[in-house]
């Protein structure tokens, strides 16, 4: 069964879902939590097997998602062409299928969305613009960059994160479909990311947004792009974002860090995939030392206050910590939180994973404080 990447993904961050490990053979059960005003039911699920060797500390909720992802039987991404890799199931598919199998209802979105194409060097960049259904503006504005190693994924796969930010912050979110590699090699994604930010500044008022209140957010490869947007804005002497939220960002090219070694075989991201992403995006491996890729080698002075979110069971865990330390050394205000027992890509899984719900709330609170 191939992944339908264009399937809309509806986030239900307001649904409280608590999953716990149960004894073998116990059926999934539901219980009503009387403390919840909306009478939301708790859904208790059990992982099918023991914790994986690469993630002995994995939370049961996270393990349920990973087990579903494995169950699809897709070929490893690092063995495929980029075109075929994009047809693989995604962690988002796993979340949605677990929800459906357990009758977890998803409320209607609290945002309206429209699509917009903007001009880029030699092509177009597609944007998805999320606008809160409540209020009249001007709203704060978030420019959001999805993950996928600069090669795979799209706006639908990361819809949950963008929608959660719009709903929880009360902001307009512009989710950017930068062009992917290997069709578009380095630094295309980086240039696209900055063009989208410039477009956001110039068009904020028309979107009912406050042009003085713009932040950038990104996950994984998108976290790298968001940080680069701030650097490019500083270098080009245009308005800096008021804040940046970087969720398990790619921050350097050394794949022998402690977390790369500990979680070399993790899912949904492993070391072999990162090598594959790097080979697909870069023109040559030496470009991995470019400060656009290795942010820890960049001039980080004068960047906006930064929030960095990391996951414990993630090859990129140490990238986030190294970048936080480099930013602090450059005089940038940095706040960080690591979430235990969860993997790369957990941030958009608040429908099932409590740590994702907590991480989204943390990111939203950091952004709201910055916008004040």
Major sheet: arrangement of strands = 3-4-6-5-7-8-9-10
Largest sheet: 8 strands, mixed
Name of the CATH class: Alpha Beta
Tally of contiguous helical segments: 10
Percent helix range: 25-40%
Written account of the structure:
By secondary structure, the chain is of the alpha/beta class. Helix 4 (159-169) packs across helix 10. The longest helix is centred in the last third of the chain and has 18 residues, at 354-371. Helices cover 31% and strands 20% of the residues. The chain is globular. The strands form two sheets. It has an eight-stranded mixed beta sheet with strand order 3-4-6-5-7-8-9-10, with helices on both faces. Strands 1-2 form a two-stranded antiparallel sheet. The model is unreliable at 1-41 (pLDDT under 50). It has a single domain, classed as Alpha/Beta hydrolase fold, catalytic domain (Rossmann fold, 3-Layer(aba) Sandwich), CATH 3.40.50. The N and C termini lie far apart (47 Å). Strand 3 (111-120) and strand 4 (123-132) form a beta hairpin. It has helices at residues 60-71, 82-85, 91-101, 159-169, 188-203, 221-235, 258-262, 271-281, 317-329, 354-371; strands spanning 29-32, 41-44, 111-120, 123-132, 139-145, 172-177, 209-219, 244-247, 306-313, 334-343.
């Amino acid at each position: 069964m191939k992944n339908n990447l264009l399937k809309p993904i509806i986030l239900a961050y307001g649904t409280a879902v608590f999953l716990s490990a149960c004894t073998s053979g116990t059926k999934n059960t539901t219980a009503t939590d009387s403390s919840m005003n909306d009478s939301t039911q708790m859904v208790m699920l059990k992982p099918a097997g023991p914790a994986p060797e690469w993630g002995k500390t994995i939370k049961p909720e996270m393990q349920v998602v990973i087990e579903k992802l494995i169950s699809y039987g897709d070929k490893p991404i690092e063995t495929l062409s980029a075109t075929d890799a994009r047809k693989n199931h995604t962690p988002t598919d796993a979340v949605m299928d677990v929800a459906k199998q357990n009758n977890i209802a998803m409320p209607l979105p609290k945002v309206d969305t429209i699509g917009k194409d903007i001009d880029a060097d030699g092509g177009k960049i597609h944007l998805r613009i999320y606008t809160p259904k409540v209020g009249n503006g001007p709203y704060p504005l978030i420019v959001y960059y999805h993950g996928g190693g600069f090669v795979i994924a799209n706006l639908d796969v990361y819809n949950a994160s963008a929608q959660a930010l719009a709903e929880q912050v009360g902001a307009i979110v512009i989710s950017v479909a930068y062009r992917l590699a290997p069709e578009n090699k380095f630094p295309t994604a980086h240039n696209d990311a900055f063009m989208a930010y410039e477009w956001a500044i110039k068009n904020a008022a028309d979107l009912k947004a406050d042009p003085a209140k713009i932040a950038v957010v990104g996950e994984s490869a998108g976290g790298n792009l968001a940080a680069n947007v701030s650097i490019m804005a500083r270098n080009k002497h245009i308005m800096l974002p008021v804040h940046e939220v970087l969720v398990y960002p790619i921050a350097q090219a050394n794949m022998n860090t402690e977390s790369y070694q500990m979680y070399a075989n993790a899912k949904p991201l492993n070391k072999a995939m990162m090598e594959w992403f790097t080979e697909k995006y870069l023109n040559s491996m030496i470009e991995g030392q470019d400060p656009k890729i290795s942010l820890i080698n960049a001039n980080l002075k004068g960047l906006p206050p930064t929030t960095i979110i990391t996951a414990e069971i993630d090859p990129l865990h140490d990238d986030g910590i190294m970048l936080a330390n480099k930013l602090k050394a450059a005089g940038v205000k940095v706040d960080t939180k690591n979430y235990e027992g969860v993997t790369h890509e957990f941030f958009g899984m608040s429908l099932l994973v409590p740590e994702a719900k907590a991480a989204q709330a943390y990111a939203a609170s950091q952004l709201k404080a910055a916008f004040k």
